[in-house]
Structure formats: structure tokens, C-alpha cells
Amino acid sequence: MIDIAVYNKDGKEVESLKVDESVFGGVVRHALIKQAVVMYQANKRIGTAATKQKSLVEGSTRKLYKQKGTGNARMGQVRTPVRVGGGVTFGKKVRDFGKDMPKKQRRLACDSAILAKLQGGHVVVVDELNFNAPKTREFARVLGNLKIDRSCLVAVKDRNENLIKSVRNVPKVELMQVADLNAGSICNRVKMLFTKDAFLTLLNREQNN
User: Fold this and answer.
1) What is the pLDDT of residues 40-66, one digit of tens each?
2) pTM of the prediction?
3) DSSP secondary structure, 8-42, as one string
4) Cβ atoms of residues 13 and 93 within 8 Å
5) Quick one: 190 exposed, middle or buried, by C-beta within 10 A (0-12, 13-18, 19+)?
6) Helix (H, G, I), strand (E, B) or coil at 131
7) Domains in the chain with CATH codes
8) What is the CA radius of gyration of the chain?
9) SS3 of 192, please?
10) From 118's CA, which of 2, 67, 130, 148 has a CA 20 to 30 Å away?
11) Helix axes 103-119, 30-43, angle to 10 degrees
């Protein structure tokens, strides 16, 4: 069992939660996490770089002049890569770098990533993160009270416009709904900050599966 303290926005501990490691698979599957992270990073690649090869360059395919008898070097068509304005040899093509993983493997990789954060003491739970208006300074103060001075992934239960606008200008902080968590985003940040209702929603979801 792992004991997780629950803090208020002033950084004072108000209660604690016990988390059974078996809820997140019991062990950290590092190979599966790596596979998931590689997939998420590969899927972000655009792959639209392209150059014109000989077949795409404008120009005639006729041989410039006959092979022999002119006293000049042998020469083919004007679109040859050895001439200025010709095609590019082995040029880049538009390609898809995307990878895929079965849904169960993605889910297990996400659980392993969360478990690794829990075991490493990088998970912080706050009782609530509600703001009456967008306040970046107020959110930054909450992070300071919780002693979060590294990159952080904030997980909430439901969409909150005021919180979204408060978080978006804070460097190295990402906000996600708990239903959208994935191993790539979790591993990309040092700390994880859960609201209490988001963390309980995650635990109940895992226990029901």
C-alpha cells in the first residue's frame, strides 16, 4: 500500500489516501512504457518534407543531343539530377511515421507510468483547484505552496475554463482530464498533480476494470 497525502491550496495536509499498487498492475512495466512513449512521439511527427525527384521536375525527357559525334560529353535529359534545375537524387518523400498499440496495452502502459510516479513520490493530490476567474498568479502560488518547482502534469476530473486559462501561461505545466491521461504525457513531466476527485475517479475506474 502507498500512502498519499491530500493537501489544500495552502499546502497544508488535510487527509491521506491509501492506494493499493495492484490497482495499477502491481509492477512497473518499463518495456511497455517505452513502447507507448515511442508511439506517442512518432505520432506527433508531421512527415510532410518532400523534394522533387527527376520524374516530378518540369522539362522534356528528350536526350539533349546525340550520343556521339558532337565532341561534347555524353548527356541525357534536362531533368537529370546532375544538371542545375534537375531532380533531387534520393529525395525526401511524404511519409507517415505513425505507430499503433492495442487499447489494452496503452491502458496498461498508462497505469505503469502512474505507478512509477507513485513509487517515486512524484504524485501530489490537492483537495480542489477551483478559481472564480482565470488567475495565473494564483495557480502559480498554489504550485509554490505544494512545493512543485519542476515540470508538472495537472489531472482534473472535468473541464474547467477558469483553470485552463490559469494554467496555459505557466511554463512546463500541462492540464489534462483524467480520462485522457496517457503514458507519453505522464513521462514527459516530472510531477503529477491530481485533484482529489480526479484521483478517486481514476482509482474507481481502475478497480472496476
Assistant:
1) 999 998 889 999 999 889 999 899 899
2) 0.78
3) -TTS-EEEEEEE-GGGGTSS--HHHHHHHHHHHHH
4) no
5) middle
6) coil
7) 2-45+100-208 (3.40.1370.10), 46-96 (no CATH)
8) 27
9) strand
10) 130
11) 120
Sheet holding 2-7, edge to edge: 13-19, 2-7, 123-126, 191-195, 152-156, 173-177
Nearest to 20 by CA among 119, 106, 125, 100: 119
**83 contacts: CB under 8 Å, gap ≥ 6:** none
Alpha helix segments (H runs only) across 69-171: 103-119, 136-145, 161-167
Angle (CA) 114-117-122 rounded to 5° is 135
Average pLDDT for 161-184 = 90
Q: Is the dihedral of CA 120, 123, 167, 10 positive or negative?
A: negative
* Residue type, position 40, single letter: Y
Positive or negative torsion for Cα 208, 196, 130, 191: negative
Under a CB-based contact definition with an 8 Å cutoff, are residues 43 and 57 in contact?
no
Please say if the pLDDT value at position 68 is more than 90. Answer: yes
Asked whether 8 and 126 are in contact (CB, 8 A), the reply is: yes
Averaged pLDDT for residues 97-107: 91
Which pLDDT does position 133 carry in this prediction?
A: 87
